[in-house]
Fold:
Amino acid sequence: MFNGDHKGELNLHYNFMRQALQLAEKAFDEGEVPVGAIVVHEGRIVGKGYNQVEMLNDPTAHAEMIAISSACSTLQNKYLQECTLYVTLEPCPMCSGAIVWSKIKRVVFGALDEKAGSCGSTFNIASNKILNHQAEIIHGVMEHDAEFLLKKFFSDKR
Structure:
């Protein structure tokens, strides 16, 4: 669940998560697994992404990967030390690796991914003390909204 301390911080997280959910809805509308992500630096969105695996025929075209690439391009830096990644679903091992390599400061996500989550549920890559960088993890922000969209997508596919 959300572990933030201040109401203002919670409101900020909800605001950015709403925007990530809008991107997840775009993925849903395009027949992609509905995951959306944004990268925020100093209160400004510097990167956005939503799943495009099917459209691009690219297994690496996850929302987080696209948002991280976009943020690096916007900031002209391979490191995102003072950035927060907002994502509707807990990042997978690949995306968590990218979080570590890009040195993202904080990850805020909605729904847990109990099959491949790598920010604490199944694996712990993004904040693993063995690695050279650990991101702060906040989970459960708008969790029910993210879960609803994912469940709807997968029930429609069946």
Strands lie at 36-41, 44-50, 83-89, 106-111, 136-139.
